[in-house]
Amino acid sequence: MGNKTFRDVQEFLKGKIILVANRGIPARRICRSIRERFDAVAAMTATDIDKTAPAASSAQELILLGAEPRAYLDIDQIINKAKQRGVVGIHPGWGFASEDTAFPQRCKDADIVFIGATAEAMNLLGNKVHARNVARCLGIPVVPGSDGSVDIAGARKLAAEIGLPIMLKAEGGGGGRGIVAVNTESEMEDAFFKASTLAQASFGNPRLFVEKFLDTVRHIEIQVIADRYGNVFAFDERDCTVQRNHQKLIETTPSPWPGLTCALRDRLKDYARRLVKAVGYYSLATVEFLITPDGSPYLIEVNTRLQVEHGITECRYGIDLVEEQIAVAFGAELRYSEEKLRPSYCSMQVRINCENPQNNFEPNSGMITRYVSPGGPGVRLDSNISAGYEFPGNYDSVGALLITYAHDWEKTLAIMERGLDEYIIGGIRTTIPFFQQVIKHVLFRKGEINTNFIAEHPELMQYTDVAPEGERLARLVAEISAKGYNPYVRLGEYRSTTTPRLGPFEPVLPPIKSSAHRRASPYPQGDRLATLDFIRDSGGVHFSDTTTRDVTQSNSGNRFRLAEDRLIGPYLDNVGYFSIENGGGAHFHVAMMANMTYPFTEAREWNNFAPKTLKQLLVRSTNVLGYSPQPRNVMRKTGEMICEHYQVVRCFDFLNHIENMGPIAEVVLACADVIFQPALSLSYAKGFDVQHYLNVTEDILRMTGAMLGIDPKKASRHVILGLKDMGGVCPPRFMTELVRALRKRWPELVLHYHRHYTDGLFLPACGAAAKAGAHIIDVGLGSAVRSYGQGDVLSAVAYFEDELGLACRLNKNAIRDANFVCKQIMPYYDRYCAPYFQGIDYDVTLYGMPGGATSSSQEGAMKQGYIHLLPYMLKFLEGTRQIIRYHDVTPGSQLTWNTAFLAVAGAWKRGGEDEVRYLLEVLNEVTRLPEADLSQEMRKARLSLYRDCNDALRNLLLGKFGKLPLGFPATWVYESAFGTDWKNALTRRSEASPLETLPDMNLDAEEKACADIIKRRPSAEEFVLYLNHPSDMLRTVKFRAEFADPNNLPLHVWFEGLKVGQDFYFNETNGKPHHLVLLSISRPSEMGVSVCRYVLDSEIMSCEVQVSQPVVTGYKDTLLADPADLYQVAAPSNGDLWVMYVHPGDIVKAGEELFNVSIMKQEKAVFAPVNGIVKRVLKTADFKEYKQMVPVREGELVVELAPVPRICANEACGQIIPLDDCVFCPYCASRVEQFVLSI
Amino acid sequence: MMIREHTGSDPSSPAVWRVESVPSSLDVGFMLAQRGDMSVWDSVLAKTQSAGRGQLRRQWNSPPGNIYAAVRLPLFAPFITAGASVAIGLLTALALRKFGWPVALKWPNDLIVQGDGALCRKVGGILLEERGGVLLAGIGINVAVTPALANAEMRKNTTLDATSLAQTGHVPPAPEILWQQLVNYLYLTYTADSDFASRWKIQAEQMLLWRGETVALCEGETIERGILVGLSTDGGLCLRTGGQVKEFFSGTLRHVEDVSLKRAGYGQ
Fold this sequence. Notes:
The structure holds two protein chains of two kinds.
Chain A: H1 6-13, E1 17-20, H2 24-38, E2 41-47, E3 61-66, H3 75-85, E4 87-91, H4 102-109, E5 113-114, H5 119-126, H6 128-137, H7 152-162, E6 166-170, E7 179-182, H8 188-203, E8 208-212, E9 218-226, E10 232-234, E11 238-244, E12 247-253, H9 262-278, E13 283-291, E14 297-303, H10 310-317, H11 321-329, E15 346-353, E16 355-356, E17 362-363, E18 366-367, E19 370-372, E20 379-383, E21 390-391, E22 398-406, H12 409-422, E23 424-426, H13 432-440, H14 442-446, H15 453-456, H16 469-483, H17 514-518, H18 528-538, E24 542-545, H19 547-555, H20 562-573, E25 579-584, H21 585-593, H22 599-609, E26 614-620, H23 632-645, E27 648-652, H24 662-669, E28 675-681, H25 690-708, H26 712-715, E29 720-725, H27 732-745, E30 750-755, H28 762-772, E31 776-779, H29 793-803, H30 812-833, H31 844-847, H32 851-863, H33 870-880, H34 892-928, H35 936-941, H36 951-958, H37 971-978, H38 982-988, H39 1003-1014, H40 1020-1028, H41 1030-1043, H42 1051-1056, E32 1063-1067, E33 1073-1081, E34 1089-1096, E35 1099-1106, E36 1128-1130, E37 1135-1140, E38 1147-1148, ...
Parallel strand pairs in A: 1-2, 1-4, 2-3, 4-5, 24-25, 24-31, 25-26, 26-27, 27-28, 28-29, 29-30, 30-31
Antiparallel strand pairs in A: 6-7, 6-8, 9-10, 9-11, 9-13, 11-12, 12-15, 13-14, 15-22, 16-17, 18-21, 19-23, 20-22, 32-33, 33-34, 34-35, 36-43, 37-39, 37-42, 38-41, 39-40, 41-43
Helix pairs in contact in A: 5-6, 12-13, 20-22, 20-30, 21-41, 23-24, 23-40, 24-25, 27-28, 28-29, 33-34, 37-38, 40-41
Chain B: E1 3-6, E2 15-22, H1 25-35, E3 43-49, E4 67-73, H2 84-98, E5 103-106, E6 110-114, E7 120-131, E8 134-141, H3 152-157, E9 161-162, H4 175-192, H5 196-206, E10 214-219, E11 222-231, E12 237-241, E13 244-248, E14 252-255, H6 261-264
Parallel strand pairs in B: 2-3, 7-9
Antiparallel strand pairs in B: 1-2, 3-4, 4-8, 5-6, 6-7, 7-8, 10-11, 10-14, 11-12, 12-13
Helix pairs in contact in B: 2-4, 2-5
């Protein structure tokens, strides 16, 4: 007769129904085994949520459990339905009721085979306390701890015996849950209470037992399987050491740990077999041990069910544990034996959970928008997800189990790396990128880890979880197309989906002859003295191109991108310019704010596509590339990065306060291949004469000389002096005078002239300077020249050569080619980025606003409704610069403009245009007449000139920006600007450089702060960017993570997006080509969301874009107060009304508190604006009494008042007289008083 | 009897009005503001209050030895938004951290000292009141004394026990001195950091108590449970519940042990 065989069971089960009482991954796994070998019908339980889940497709039948998500725990219902259906066996899977001892018992009662252990065996081994007892009887070492559950006194006693730290574990628990660590005696009480409550809630059993906390251990477990006939087979160990909070993350077999010797393995297997045999157990079980570094094992628990990580054992041996488990349950003899079954492979599993490791492994649920699973040799996948699946939040967060296997550990790791790379799950965060970090880690690969590995290596959490670049760029294109404009470029809603387009940008690029390519730059590189000597010796005029920085900064809002730089850069490189100014100033900031480009990476690329010409950038003295004064250590870091990519550094200070330039000068001068160019900020006005500028130059040379260790005369050979006329205000004759004087005084000092076009005299002024001996002139490409930048190069060359007889050695053909390309680019920038006010304005010589700011400042005035005051503001500028003397470059120009704006707007608010005119009259008098001739009236009137100024001007007057070039202004200015505090201000002012008192920044703390925000270590460049412009750097990092590098998108797509049906080809950064077609853009929903569908390469994708504000329906019912009606009292903001003090009929005085609205612990009192009587109260609340708050919206009518009525004078009556023309009181007939009750 | 001092040697530094015993420093603050004697960042510091108040006019027990102050806030971002409470909470918490106490923020602006293990105790509270264009932040910090819970109502509503700075082991200076240092720090940090208006939310999130953990937001009878995700741009509380992130602007925050269903079905 013999024991039943596997074949017998197979025969028996043909066509019979086996039910899996589980869901998701375990259910699918088991259903597969049921169908493969047994030809049985696989049935699966499913709640309403799981009916359509991907795993459900593996079952042939579903036993529906209804709407209650927890129905998987309802074993009675399951067994009843199973019985009705004629199910012969139930497999509980893992989790849920798989270790509920009632389950096998009830199945037995219902005559259904339970595919698992018996109730008795489950109780003996599954209960941790019982298991420990059995183990101890068998001489198997267990973790020191209590013999049974303990109370708090017992816990304390045991803790004292075995020593802290200890763990409090739930008796009914398992799977690493219900464990609370106790490190100190004082924690014991709270921890015990917490653990007990947790245990009761999770397992229905509040009892706890104590275990010693073993540190630096490995978690090793042995899988066993036994049949009813006493046969037991123990498999090789599984190593589950990589855990987090006692939850397993990665399992491997065999253990890669060198300490797991054959002897130890045999010992563990022996323990496991004996344990299982001792209780007459059959089915699958796993015996779990903790192994200390010296190789001592301690039993922790036994799991009497199929486990999540069973798959790796299956891969190691090439078997199916589930089918064997089923066979054993139906009475078959075990087929495995030591002789017949040998392990062949290494295997590893990672749990792909729908959790965000960077956010404390917070589970996330949601729609899976993209799903591409890995494949190829050595990959096994057990999953419950698919594209379009809405991952539910009601159950655990495991999405898939990814297993790899191969002959050796190295190959297994390599396949896992590859598999994780190939695995794409879009729409939710998963643990995939986290595992990629773990797999790469040296310690993990060597097998030298313990259970604290994850906790002790927080760097594993630092990564960027991004979709492939093509996908990200496609989403950006979809968003721009759906909106019709690009919100990230920060130009407002400059167009809509129906605005006519400029059309595709497909520039024609003239070929560059290889001879031109090979021709070297005439300027020596790498040695600043050599370069400067060349300029000195060569005669003629030299040029610098500012097209990609100052010209487009002034005329195209700095929106000229790296993508377009790449197009014209190679042509500019062949012109033979001394330098190309391609960075610094506001360009640096806007690169991150709107172009989403890293400025130093941009600079590096420039050196690649235009390697021959020197690169130049502009910095401010105290702020360098930021917007506030920089401490020395930050300046050093920024300066060093600048010197890596630029060879000419122009530095200016709006006060020409040379000490301010000191720190940056030091950094630049230390680099032998970088040329330092301190610049004079130029104004044309009394006091700012040639001698003044010669003095400033003397200061500059003395300072640089001191740094280089040479005298000023020698120093003049090592630097370039910049002459910076930002407004275009210095007339040609002044330039002649100035340049001549400079050349005479320091014949070896190279002069570099930078001038704006605004006044219209660019060419005469440059000509004058060049003729007088200025060496280098800043120019731009003609096709980019507009009102405010520099002038055009070809006309300058023609003027110099033909009219002035000066040699200019430039390659005109190269310029023409550059112009041709630039001409094709400019229409997009002109359409979308041009300043509002354009054109030449000679009056800039009077009011002095610099090129870049001219339009934006005036635009600001217009937008605020002050366009009619603009001429007055300009007049004010003209006057104030004669009183408070400095130069109109950043930030001085903003200061002056704000002062003018505030003064004029303030005067207008006080007394209309008359007041403004008077203000300017006063200003005129003050500037026209000497002090002695001013009348008393004037002396008094002038104090109002600066009364409206802001703190920035006050700081300037205090010297907080540095030393004013012509000293402090007159004392009355302080009286005007500071009011009563003016005397104080005088004592506080100083002439020291603001950099002197600036303490160093704590760079380590800043780096940590940055890393915390972006969740990874910032690169060297990112850190410098963060130090200079933190919020915009973060903006760019966030943008790049979401949308990749937008410089891969051509101009028209960047500004306009695509039309539906338009074919679009683009490359991502590494050159991989993509094809994108928009299929449809839906009409915006009520929430303002459009759905975009598109084809990217061969996949159809969709995304949602917020194109407009949601229509908030609740508003229809809310009555808004009429802001013009004083009697209607509105809620001051959104929030909760929590107390209403008045009732209808109450008489209130102006200023009396009517009600109070709370929002987030901010309580706003609302007062009656006028005297009145409360007509109606629309909402009422009294939180103290009723504990209820009533939500209100901003502007909602809450209380309506009415004018105070007349009251009958008869005290006994006191009624309100209803009609205004009553002579007698309608209630008591007494005569009504003729006046309104006054209160 | 009021004494006026400055927080720093610089006369342009904020002024502190010191009073002995008043009903509430908030009321004194409003009175002074009406007189024109209370500029932005000036404050009133009372030794003790007879009618100290917390949120929604709950009683704030005010025995001597602690800080009961009202400081005037500027009506500029971020104090002009709903997030004003969180922003001032952040500044105060930053100050206390700088002075050596491990303080976290329980949304919206309770000042919490984190002790051993998971024990959290409240060491201070902030209430903002706005009247007629004057915004005051009433700040109460237990410096030397841990007040007994005022009455049953407070006990029922309090989710965390109280403590004082002195109890943490790091001895605080006298409350007047600590308040001076605090206001100075608030003032300097706000005025020096031009990026504060855009950065405060990120910094506040870093200091949020129970971030990433399951919490319950209670308002009257309604309880909303979820994972504390962070702050919205307006400083509202963002909870992830039922698969969505929702924003809340009111309610009392409590911690919840993880007893929800999803763990019951979790494997090993």
